[in-house]
Amino acid sequence: MTRRTTRLVLIISGVLALIAGAVFVRGTPLSAAQAPAPSFADVTVWGTGDLDPQTQALYQNLANAIAGFVGVPDSRWAYYGLYNDGTTWAIGSWGGSVLNAVPDGNGGYQVSMTVGPNFSISPGLIVGGGYYEIFNVDAAGVVTFIGSQDPNNASGGPLNSMSG
Fold first, then answer.
1. Is 150 helix (H, G, I), strand (E, B) or coil?
2. Coil, helix or strand for 12?
3. Alpha carbon of 48 to those of 14, 55, 81, 130: distances in Å?
4. Which residues touch 82 (CB under 8 Å, ≥6 apart)?
5. To bridge 90 with a disulfide, which of 19, 104, 121, 164 should be the other Cys (CB 3.0-4.6 Å)?
6. pLDDT tens across 109-128, in order?
7. How many Å separate Cα 105 from the centre of its chain?
8. pTM summary value
9. 43 and 68 in contact (C-beta within 8 Å)?
10. Is residue 40 helix, strand or coil?
């Protein structure tokens, strides 16, 4: 492939990742050693047009609860680590999009969502991958990180990207 073809493939892949639900937002610089409060600059609900009003309201309430989650899981830093060198790229904040929520059997919900960075250095760069996180939001609104998924085994490596 030529450089131009490779760049076009990366741009198209990045757009497809955005369409698939990756949400990226602006914020202030973070480092792996920091535990910002909150760690998300924005959490949205994906596919609101496909949800009935009651489900959309539930998902939005869960998104609002997760937006207050403090801390960045090590798996997220590992997945996006290549894009946080502090010179070419620096992650400024995180954004997420709720994809699904299922009752946990105790009055709360297990919530699956996409998560991605916003860059403070190279702010027009959008990186899409296929990284997902699962949170539990209990009946009292307490949010717990359950785990992450990397179905493409892309952690730490180059991801689809495009400049905006």
1. coil
2. helix
3. 21, 9, 31, 20
4. 156, 157, 158, 159
5. 121
6. 999 999 988 877 776 666 76
7. 26
8. 0.71
9. no
10. strand
The residue among 96, 37, 26 whose CA lies nearest residue 63 is 96
Per-residue tokens: 106 = 């105790």
Strand partners, 148: 133
What are the angstrom distances between the C-alpha of 69 and each of 56, 77, 127?
20, 16, 22
pLDDT tens-digit readout, 38-78: 577 788 898 777 889 999 999 999 999 999 898 889 899 88
Residue tagged 């998560």 (tokens): 115
CA 108 – CA 97 distance, rounded (Å)? 18
In this structure, what token pair is assigned to residue 66?
């997760």
Rounded Cα distance between 9 and 160, Å, is 9
The position carrying tokens 């939005």 is: 60
Residues 140 and 112: their CA atoms lie apart, in Å, by: 19
The pLDDT value given to residue 134: 96
Beta bridge partners of 149: 132
Answer with the residue of higher pLDDT: 54 or 15: 54
